[in-house]
Amino acid sequence: MNSLPTNDSMPVATKSRPLKVVLICHSDMLGGASIVTYRLMQALRYEGVDARMVVYTKISNDSNVDVISSRGMRGFKFLVERLRILVSNGFSRENLFKVSIANTGTAIHKHPWVAEADVINLSWINQGLLSINGIRRLGSLGKPIVWTMHDMWNLTGICHHSYDCKGYKESCGNCQFLTGLSGSDLSNKIHQRKKELYAGLNIHFVAVSNWLAGLCRQSSLLGDKPLSVIPNAFPINSFVTKPTHSITSFNIDYTRNIIVMGAARLDDPIKGLGYAIEALNYIFDNHPEIARTSTAVFFGDIRNPRKFDELRFPHIHIGRINDQKVIRMIYAASKVVLSTSLYETLPTTLIEGQASGCLAVTFGKGGQTDIVEHMKNGYIAEYRDAKSVARGILWAFEQNVDRDALHESVRRRYASSEIAMEYISLYNDLLSKQNVSAQQHSTSKKH
Fold it and tell me: Helices 348-355 and 324-333, interaxial angle, to 10°?
């Protein structure tokens, strides 16, 4: 969406030009946080904001997205950060990508789009894109900074999800993802660096779910910082509740009851694939009449395809799907959207599934509870209980769902236009406060 509408209601930084916002994210299309940030940029542009993205990895051909640094330098900085983590976790690759330390990054503060922007909106900035010092340099530009949080990294020392650890309430240390169990380990050191960063900059944080906001309020880093809750933006109107055509390439029988489950990487431990398999096997063993008329469709990468050898329930794994139209048709043909993630900030697949008329079945340890109202628009299973997940699927199969009404309820909560206007209101409020502060400072200097 390259053009900007021109009308009197356009949000403005001055009377002569539109509001300029630069969104900074690791990628535009690679990973969930990147995709929703790109969608936010599109939604903002549609509402009249001159919004652009600066990224580390560009997938789209959108002229409003620019890549920072050279490929070789990006790779070097990525390796520098990962090597430092490897040293601290005993050279184990098992937890290598569960943490980030922001010890190296690019000079984004020098990018012309950043220089021109009225507001800087940070998103997922890890793995060599921005260092803690780089964020401090952005703060020195004197522009309002909004930081949209897609996981727990902002409120912990180094981890993206803390699981059951509550170290973020104090000062981290003894990190489960490092070796040695030291109170002054790398997690504690980075926690202290973040504390100093936040104390020196006026950042307005945005949590994408009430669950994440609640954790921020418990955190020693963010407990007293400015915080709003604004969900991710979704192109709800592009989702349909009935398939407009069949996707024949995957041999999906659309006459069956379809359960759909997707993830960037299905066997990422946090996705809880084992609970989904156990739940579906329970239905296969105890309700064979249901299994005979049903199919579980899984999309996304998997490191160990043999994992599906454990699944007796009829199923299809269709791998990674980059064509959103294909995914939308599968959702529209499905009755249940399933997620057994142990923790999720705001699960995209549940919202997209509901926008297509699917009932959601999931655990409730995270942003799922923002999306699912138990036994109304989905089922909240007992945590880590596969039999409870199975009961949720069976419950969903028995419901006569008004798919269009479910779609409409999701549109009211997550439509791109609604979310864009919430951000525009926040941006304008921060700019207004900055202008008042600047005027007061100028007046005090005169006296």
Answer: 60
Q: List alpha helices for 287-378, DSSP H.
A: 288-291, 324-333, 348-355, 368-371
211 within 8 A of 345, measured Cβ to Cβ: yes
Place of tokens 């969608």: 39
- Per DSSP, the chain holds a count of helices (H) and strands (E) of 14, 13
> What pLDDT is attached to residue 437?
65
CATH class of 20-233+415-446: alpha beta
User: Does the structure show a pLDDT above 60 at 442?
Assistant: no
What's the whole-model pTM score?
0.90
Give bridge partners of residue 22 from the DSSP assignment.
52, 120
Sorted by where each begins, the domain ranges of the chain are 20-233+415-446, 236-410
Spatial separation of the C-alpha atoms in residues 99 and 206, rounded to whole Å: 21
pLDDT tier at 436, thresholds 50, 70, 90: confident
CA angle 321, 322, 327 (to 5 degrees): 55
Q: Tokens standing for 400? A: 């006569």
Tell me which CATH homologous superfamily contains domain 236-410: Glycogen Phosphorylase B; (3.40.50.2000)
Express each pLDDT in 133-161 by its tens digit.
Answer: 999 999 999 999 999 999 999 999 999 99
